Amino acid sequence: MGSMVIPSVRHAVEDLRRGKCVLIYDWPDRESEVDMVCYAGHIDAEKVYMLRTEAGGLICFATSEEVAKALELPLFTDLLGMSDRLRLLVKRARYGDVSPFALWVNSVGVRTGISDEDRARTIKELHHVVSLVTSGRADEGKRLFYENFYAPGHIPILISRGLKHRRGHTELAIVLTKLAKLPPSVVFVEMLDYSTSMSLHKAREYAEKRGLTLVTGEEVVNEADREGVI
Question: What is the dihedral sign for C-alpha 66, 118, 111, 59?
Fold first, then answer.
């Protein structure tokens, strides 16, 4: 990357490559939330524990729309739309977007699926599937996905539809992997405070204390536009 790269985005990209988690704040007129994001290729039980105890929200896995299409993985809203009754539940959130959730899965090798070790195993195996798909072995990845997972489980899969269509944490996190030239495979979780989402101010204090990089949605979008990965 050239000298025009926004420093915080450059640091976030480097951190993801090295296995450090980063923080992403979206926009004050959207969710106005901060998510902790880790590259799934470096996930382990210790990182799941950190996400659970220091961030506190829902631990999610996300990948790109291209990978989801290769796996024939639909959005959950599409499944709900197949029912005359359940389609009534498909609504936009208060901030204006449709949910990016697909299915909730567990690896067939877990005990119950909810422990840090179990969730790390499910995430590692999802990452392996994504890596196969993005390396040109889509058929093998698809076979492993349908053989090695069951649903419903404890890890929700979210699908990024790209920043041209949606500007949520899912899309921002996947764009960071593109900037880092990594497979589109991330784990992320909302940062919570007592009874509410953690404020940007407190998240900045946390990031400084832990030596983590915090980037904003605007910074990520600007860099993505400059690099042509929108």
Answer: negative
Nearest alpha carbon to residue 155 among 97, 89, 108: 108
Which 3 state secondary structure label does DSSP give 158? Answer: strand
CA distance 81 to 64: 22
Gap between the Cα atoms of 5 and 226, Å rounded: 9
pTM as predicted: 0.95
Q: Which CATH number fits domain 7-227: 3.90.870.10, 3.40.50.1820, 3.40.50.920, 3.40.50.720?
A: 3.90.870.10
CA dihedral 163, 21, 59, 138 (to 10 degrees): 60
Contact 191, 197 (CB under 8 A): yes
Q: Above pLDDT 70, what percent of the chain?
A: 97
**DSSP state at residue 29:** T
- Residue where the block lists tokens 């600007």: 222
